[in-house]
Amino acid sequence: MKNMTELEASVRPGSREFAAGWDQKSGRLKVSLTEKPEQGRANAELVRELSKILGAPVELVRGGRDRRKLLRVGLPLEEIKRRLSAPEGADISPARFRSAKCAPFARRRIGEAKPGGV
Questions:
Q1: What's phi and psi for 34, nearest 5 deg?
Q2: What's the pLDDT tens digit per position in 81-114?
Q3: Which of 80, 83, 84, 93 is 20–30 Å from 56 (CA)?
Q4: What's the helix, strand, coil split of the chain in %, to 5?
Q5: Closest Cα to residue 88, out of 103, 109, 101?
Q6: Which parts of the chain are beta strand (E)?
Q7: What are phi and psi of 18, to 5 degrees?
């Protein structure tokens, strides 16, 4: 597919809520996942949620058993960064992202309804 981008991601499974943001310093996506790293559930959540948020296909290329992943996204890098930027007025500074200087674009607490009613 044209305009495919491969990018590195650092993930933290087993968090209270799903959150993700672009880390300007490392040039990497940082993601907190609610699923535990058992039987591929955290990887499935990573691909599923990023696909929904970015509105493009996301594929795990490397790092199935590692916290550092290589993802292939069906968008150019500049468009990915644009879609990851938080809307104006959004709360973009939860403590876990403050030190990394990245802005989460989506958060969901455990127990809240998932987008799409699933």
A1: -85, -25
A2: 888 875 544 444 333 343 334 444 555 444 455 5
A3: 93
A4: 25, 35, 40
A5: 103
A6: 5-12, 17-23, 28-32, 58-62, 68-73, 102-109
A7: -75, 130
Q: Which CATH number fits domain 5-85+98-111: 3.30.1200.10, 1.10.1270.20, 2.30.30.210, 3.40.50.1010?
A: 3.30.1200.10
Residue 76: strand, helix, or coil: coil
Q: Cα dist. 36→44, 54, 71 in Å?
A: 11, 23, 19
| Stretches in the chain below the pLDDT threshold 70 | 1-2, 86-118
